[in-house]
Amino acid sequence: MLQELRIKNFAIIDELDLSFSKGFNILTGETGAGKSIILNAVQLLLGDRASEELIRSSEEEASVEALFDISENREVKGRIQEKGQRLSGAEERDSLLVRRMISRSLHQWKSCHAWNAFGNGGGTPQHLRPA
Fold first, then answer.
1. Superfamily per CATH, domain 2-23+31-128
2. DSSP 53
């Protein structure tokens, strides 16, 4: 379950921190309020293709970070361990932090993922999506 979402310099979003509670959560707002951008940020975390256009026009890098509660999800824990990631302490075994950075650098751009603070060499966590 998605617990927290932090978005910075992504599309038109300067900085946004969202917390979600257990159960049903709803994003509401007027047309153009940014609901689709929030969903695009989550999709980026889960492996959608990144592009330089996703970086806020006045900034050099964008980041999207999410904290997931995986305490009751053996399948995801197993997939993480299959990929060689460590889930050490009790609290860390029950949560997964996924971060995606997109950066401009001398007319080139790059994108990278990190799970629980371990870099993943640009790999995407698409294997964490439900089958």
1. P-loop containing nucleotide triphosphate hydrolases (3.40.50.300)
2. G
| 17-4-33-114 Cα dihedral, nearest 10 degrees | 90
Q: How far apart are CA 76 and CA 127, in angstroms?
A: 9
| Residue 24 CB neighbour total at 10 angstroms | 6
Instruction: Give all strands of the β-sheet with 61-69 in edge-to-edge order.
Output: 13-19, 2-10, 61-69, 95-105, 108-115, 118-119
Boundaries of every domain in the chain: 2-23+31-128
Cβ atoms of 96 and 78 closer than 8 Å: no
Backbone angles phi, psi at 34, to 5 degrees: 110, 10
Q: What is the pLDDT of residues 40-88, one digit of tens each?
A: 999 998 888 888 899 999 899 999 999 988 888 888 877 777 766 555 5
